[in-house]
Design a protein that fits this description.
The protein has one domain: Beta-Lactamase. Helix content is 36%, strand content 25%. The chain contains five helices and six strands, in the order H-H-E-E-E-H-E-E-E-H-H. It has a six-stranded antiparallel beta sheet, sandwiched between helices. A hairpin with a 5-residue loop joins strand 2 (52-60) and strand 3 (66-68). The protein is globular, with a radius of gyration of 15 Å. It starts with a helix and ends in a 9-residue tail after the last helix.
């Protein structure tokens, strides 16, 4: 059954509306993807920090914390600033295994007005799970997230020690 990404975009925008905290919105974004898109075993963000993509909010099993830009599906998507849809991860020469159950992957860039700052990564245990409509839909949802908050603030989190009261 096809996913109605237009409807999901409206729901996501309503969910994120009015909340300025980028961490809260990114966490809800990952949970929303996992709850609303069938057959996912991972849904989350990787954000650029230096020469790596660093794991952000996600839903799934513990995952790779750092991925070198240019490596794996996520790193290649970021380096090219282009989405990558992989029907069978075992056929992707540089696939990085974080969850051995993952069989298909769809990665789309996460951008703001200044450019790419990370990627949205969705994995499925079913080969061939993702089609072009999923790629297009995930790009819509990534734009909705980037429109909702200062995503660069999320990418900067963890760079300096916090001084909590």
């Amino acid at each position: 059954m096809p996913v109605d990404y237009e409807q999901l975009e409206r729901q996501l925008r309503a969910l994120l509306e009015g909340e300025p905290d980028p961490l809260a919105n990114a966490a809800n974004f990952a949970a929303f993807l996992a709850a609303e898109i069938p057959e996912l075993n991972f849904a989350g963000l990787y954000l650029a920090k230096g020469e790596d993509l660093v794991l952000g909010p996600f839903i799934g099993k513990p995952s790779c914390t750092r991925i070198a830009i240019g490596r794996g599906v996520c790193g290649k998507s970021f380096a090219a600033d282009a989405p990558i849809l992989v029907e069978d991860v075992s056929a992707f020469a540089d696939h990085i295994v974080c969850d051995s159950a993952s069989a298909a992957e769809c990665v789309v860039p996460l951008r703001d007005a200044e450019g790419i700052i990370g990627v949205i990564d969705c994995d499925s245990p079913r080969r061939g799970r993702f089609v072009e409509a999923d790629r297009e839909g995930l790009e819509r949802l990534a734009r909705a997230l980037a429109d909702s908050v200062d995503i660069r603030a999320l990418a900067r989190m963890g760079e300096a020690p916090s001084r909590l009261p």
